[in-house]
Specification:
By secondary structure, the chain is an alpha+beta fold. The protein contains eight helices and 16 strands. It is globular, with a radius of gyration of 20 Å.
Length: about 350
C-alpha cells in the first residue's frame, strides 16, 4: 500500500548511488535487489563472500516490507495504524514492536522540534488537497483550517509501556513522513543480523550505508539540486555514508500555485498553512534513518537558525538546509556536515 500520493513525487530530493569501478577490495561479489514499496521504489546493494540465493533474499526483503506496510500504512484500512485511528478515545491498544518503535521515535521528534514534526497533521494535509482525499488546490476557508487544527496534536497520543498506545482526543495518525526511514532501518538490520555488513539500502531516496562498497570505501551517494524541473538532475553534494543514514525532505515537487504564489505539501502544524520560509529542501545525516527522515521534514518547517542550532546540539547528527532566494540556492549546514562531503 502507498504511503505517498503518487510514485513520481515520492522522492523530494533525488539521490544518486555511485558505482565503484576497478578491482574489488573485498573478496566478495556485489549483488543488487530492487522492487516497489510504499508507493515508491527500493534498491539494495550488498556484498557477500559466501554463496547466497538472490531469490531467497528477494523474498525475505519483500516479506519484511509487506509486513511493515501492514503495520504502518495509512492507505490500508486494515493496517495496524488504521485500526488504531479507528479505536475509541481512551481505549488502550497493544501494538506490534514495529509500530511501537516507530512511535517512540515519533514522540522524540515531536518533543525536540517543539511540534514542528507532528504525525497527526493528516486533517490539514487532506484539507489542502495533498493527502489521501481528492486534490482540491484551493485555499481553505479560515474556519475549516481552525477545525482541522483542533483535530491535531501528537501530544494527544499517550505512549505507555508494554507496547501500549492510547488516544486522548479525536486525532488521526499518519506516519508517512518517517515510514520509509523505518523501512530502510529494518532492511539494514535484516542484512547485518545475517552477517552481511557491507550493504546500502535505499527506499524512495532515503538511505542507510553499512560497511563499505566493493572497493573497500564508504558508500557514496549524491544529492541533486532541489529544482522543480525533473529534467534538471545536477548534483549539489556527494556524501559518504559509513554506518550512517541520510534522508531528505523537500517542498518543491508537490505543490500548487494561485496568483503566482506557491503552496507546498508540507504543512506547518502550528499555523495550518503550507510552510513559507524559502526552504526548498533539508537533508539529515544520522545513525538512524527513521529519525533522519522525520527530522528532515521538521527542519523545513522550522526557522533556519533554530534548525541548525537544534542539529548542532544532537550527537552524531548533521544537516544541510537549502533555501532558494530569487534564482540562487543558499545552503546552511551544521557544524560537522562537511566531514561527510566528498571534496
Amino acid at each position: 500500500m502507498k504511503f505517498t500520493k503518487t510514485i513520481i513525487f515520492c522522492i523530494c530530493l533525488s539521490i544518486f548511488i555511485f558505482h565503484s569501478k576497478g578491482l574489488a577490495a573485498h573478496f566478495g561479489q556485489e549483488f543488487t535487489l530492487s522492487g516497489k514499496t510504499m508507493g515508491t521504489f527500493y534498491t539494495i546493494k550488498f556484498i557477500s563472500s559466501k554463496k547466497i540465493s538472490l531469490s531467497l533474499w528477494q523474498a525475505r526483503v519483500d516479506k519484511r516490507l509487506k509486513d511493515i506496510n501492514k503495520k504502518l500504512s495509512v492507505y490500508d484500512p486494515k493496517s495496524e495504524l488504521s485500526l488504531f485511528n479507528d479505536q475509541k478515545i481512551g481505549t488502550p491498544v497493544k501494538v506490534s514492536s514495529d509500530f511501537y518503535d516507530t512511535m517512540l521515535t515519533a514522540k522524540k521528534l515531536y518533543d525536540m522540534t517543539d511540534g514542528s514534526w507532528d504525525g497527526t497533521v493528516k486533517p490539514l494535509v487532506d484539507l489542502w488537497g495533498f493527502g489521501t482525499k481528492k486534490s482540491i488546490h484551493t485555499i481553505p476557508e479560515a474556519d475549516k483550517i481552525a477545525l482541522a487544527l483542533s483535530k491535531t496534536g501528537f501530544h494527544h497520543i499517550d505512549i505507555k509501556g508494554q507496547q501500549t498506545l492510547l488516544k486522548t482526543a479525536d486525532i488521526t495518525l499518519d506516519l508517512g513522513s518517517i515510514a520509509k526511514g523505518y523501512g530502510v532501518d529494518a532492511l539494514a538490520r535484516l542484512f547485518t543480523s545475517s552477517g552481511i555488513h557491507d550493504v546500502l539500502v535505499e527506499i524512495g531516496g532515503e538511505l542507510y550505508g553499512s560497511g563499505t562498497n566493493k572497493k573497500g570505501k564508504p558508500w557514496s551517494v549524491g544529492i541533486s539540486e532541489p529544482d522543480k524541473q525533473f529534467s534538471n538532475q545536477n548534483l549539489f553534494k556527494i556524501i559518504r555514508l559509513n554506518n550512517h543514514a541520510i534522508a531528505t525532505s523537500g517542498n518543491y515537487r508537490i505543490f500548487f500555485e494561485i496568483n503566482k504564489k506557491t503552496y507546498s505539501h508540507i504543512i506547518d502544524p502550528k499555523t495550518g498553512f503550507p510552510v513559507d520560509n524559502n526552504i526548498v529542501s533539508a537533508s539529515v545525516i544520522s545513525k538512524d534513518c527513521t529519525f533522519a527522515d522525520g527530522l528532515a521534514t521538521a527542519l523545513i518547517v522550522m526557522d533556519v537558525q533554530k534548525a541548525i542550532a537544534l542539529v548542532n546540539s544532537l550527537e552524531d547528527t548533521e544537516c544541510l538546509i537549502i533555501q532558494k532566494k530569487a534564482t540562487q540556492f543558499i545552503s546552511h549546514t551544521s557544524d560537522n556536515f562537511d566531514r561527510f562531503v566528498v571534496k
